[in-house]
Amino acid sequence: MFHLEKNKPVSSQIKVASVDSPDNLSSISAFLDLVGSCSGPDGGIHMIRNPCGGHVTMTTDSSRLLASMCLSRQILKLVMNSVQGHLKEFGDGGKYLAFACLSLIKLTIQETGKSTHHRAYSALNEQFVKLVSEYLNSEECAVCVNADLTDMHVLFAYTRSVISTRPLLHLSERDFEQISQLIVKCFVESIPEQENNDSGPGHSNRIFIVGSPLEHPRSSRLLKGLLLECPELPIVKGEHAFSIMKTNQRSKDFLSEGDSSKCIKVALVTCSMSGDLEDIVSATFEVSEGQAATAENLVLDKWAEFCIRLAHYQVGLLLCQKVIHPRLKILLKTQNIMAVDRLGSNVVPYVQDLTGAQPIVSVIAVTNPESLCGYITAAEHMLLNDKSYLLLKQPKASLVTLILCSKTEESLEEFKCCVKVSLRGLFSLLREEKLLAGAGCWQIHCSYVLNEQVRSSLSTLADGAGCSEAQVLSALSVFRSAVFHRWVQLLQKGDSIIEDSWDKLMIDSKTKHCWKTPSGCKKAGSMEEQLFCCCGLNTSSLTSISLTNGASFVMFNPSRDSSARGQVFPNHCRNGDKRESSAFDALLSDSEPGATGTAESQLCLNQPVTITATLDHFSAAIQGLYKAVFTANLVLSLGQVISDVD
């Protein structure tokens, strides 16, 4: 017997909290530690899994990290949306954006407290980021590197800077050099010799990436042409001869002049050829079983006529984005036409760039399929990881296939992601030939320049923001600490908690770059050894850096400086109740090293860029800085955060 009871209405639980509430600050600190712990070359690898089970993601990449997470705090969702929008546009700089934004929110709240409004600090933050951006875009900027595409060392250095920050790949120095050269070679091969005005701009980046697990990364290689998976070809070693129709008809746009060899005509279909009615009518109707079979046969008969027309036009290869009906496959085979289906939408742009074919979107709408066909010169059968592939070749089309290898599936996905980031950065150099000195050097340099500019116009900034000069200096200390100094500390010290093993970080007053000196180097013979700064663009001897009487170099030791004031750092503190102060960099803000030091700094400015230099993406860095500041100001402007718990 069943007993029915009336459902009791469930009351909705509305939770209201301010931005500076303990719960919000705790969640910001936790997410800040999460981002910081996987940043830099010494960052840790995060393993993420859904509480209900499922796929396990191992990564240090910001795009894969955020895509696999589900956040409940509205403030963190706002920051994550800003980061994901930035990554969608540039592909790089996501972790820096998130870390700078969250640090600025946290330190501003802790510095101002509940008695002071955040509006003055937000207005000053906008002025600070404007000054930094104007300096980086000016001709006087000393941390911008001219990325001349004729200088291969610049391209190698930038590519190596991207892939060297992925510890999950487990690559050696030799692997870094080899893979960097391979990526740059792909980039150069994908640039067309001359732009084809008739066909317009390319539909893809002309670099198709194929993954091959269970192989060492140094087995990665480059193929000229487009490699498509073709399961219907037999998986046997050696070459497999397959029948495909060739034609003497030529295309002046995609075949070389004077070439008398036959070519293969290609048709590209982007609609389904399985016999459904998706391209005929968009409606839902009821039919009997016999009527359904009749309707399907009518559609297949229409596609069969289309295939006969392709044979008449001497088409040798049919590429379908979706599914081809088995009946049509048999018909195509009898007509000596090779068919490859289930390509997917991501492959279609590469087929268009290689063959010049235009998509056939409907069997009814098309009147002249021959005018939409493209051409290739050859098709070869290849085996990769016990799978059959078809390599389509077209010498005049600047399209290549990059086969990336890795030992595990997770490291392969990480490898693909970092290669795509480096390629996007290389292609951006075609529009803007600029890069930044990486490894924290441009952040430290901008921090010094900003400090000088703010102190020179202190009264003007105070009057514009409607606050005192002391508040301007306090906001400047918060900004430099959150946006620059803490990020440099993460890059150079990673997630280490053994303070004695850290190398000393020195700041040079002439170039305003940071230098990492060996902690155990005390031999007299090694003091004259030439050292590179963190980005690798300047050199100096260890003697010049180690001089304590001169003022040319000062030590950047925020951990020591903060402990003297009872301050705590996110790398060592997991207790959200302790108050962090942003004035930990007083050494840098109050006693800026001048150029009056007596130490002879053997600096070699404007050094030629070597392959070991560390370079950052210019546009991604500047836009990431902008978005970090404006997202932080948006969060600080919120009065209450209202969320429905149910």
Helix-strand layout with pairing:
Layout: E1 14-18, H1 22-37, E2 46-49, E3 56-59, H2 62-67, H3 74-90, H4 94-112, H5 119-136, E4 144-146, H6 152-163, H7 173-190, E5 207-213, E6 221-224, E7 226-229, E8 264-269, H8 289-312, E9 315-320, H9 326-334, E10 338-340, H10 348-355, E11 374-376, E12 378-384, E13 387-393, E14 400-406, H11 409-428, E15 434-437, H12 441-456, H13 458-465, H14 469-493, E16 504-508, E17 514-517, E18 530-532, E19 539-541, H15 542-546, E20 553-556, H16 558-563, H17 586-590, E21 615-617, H18 618-636, E22 640-644
Helix pairs in contact: 1-4, 3-4, 3-18, 4-14, 4-18, 5-12, 5-14, 5-18, 6-7, 6-11, 8-9, 12-14, 13-14
* Proportion in helices: 25-40%
Strand order of the main beta sheet, please? 10-9-8-11
Which percent range describes the beta-strand content?
A: 15-25%
The separation of the N and C termini measures 33 Å
- Rounded to the nearest angstrom, the radius of gyration is 30 Å
DSSP summary, beta strand count: 22
Total of DSSP H or I helical runs spanning 4+ residues: 18
Structural class: alpha+beta
Low-confidence stretches: 494-502, 547-606
Overall outline: globular
Largest sheet: 4 strands, mixed
Arithmetic mean pLDDT? 79
Can you walk me through this structure?
By secondary structure, the chain is of the alpha+beta class. 39% of the residues lie in helices and 16% in strands. It contains 18 helices and 22 strands. It has helices at residues 22-37, 62-67, 74-90, 94-112, 119-136, 152-163, 173-190, 289-312, 326-334, 348-355, 409-428, 441-456, 458-465, 469-493, 542-546, 558-563, 586-590, 618-636, and strands at 14-18, 46-49, 56-59, 144-146, 207-213, 221-224, 226-229, 264-269, 315-320, 338-340, 374-376, 378-384, 387-393, 400-406, 434-437, 504-508, 514-517, 530-532, 539-541, 553-556, 615-617, 640-644. Strands 10-9-8-11 form a four-stranded mixed sheet, sandwiched between helices. A hairpin with a 6-residue loop joins strand 18 and strand 19. The longest helix is centred in the last third of the chain and has 25 residues, at 469-493. The protein is globular. One of its GO terms (cellular component) is nucleus. InterPro entries: Cpn60/GroEL/TCP-1, GroEL-like_apical_dom_sf, GROEL-like_equatorial_sf, MKKS, TCP-1-like_intermed_sf. One of its GO terms (molecular function) is unfolded protein binding. This is Mckusick-kaufman/Bardet-Biedl syndromes putative chaperonin.
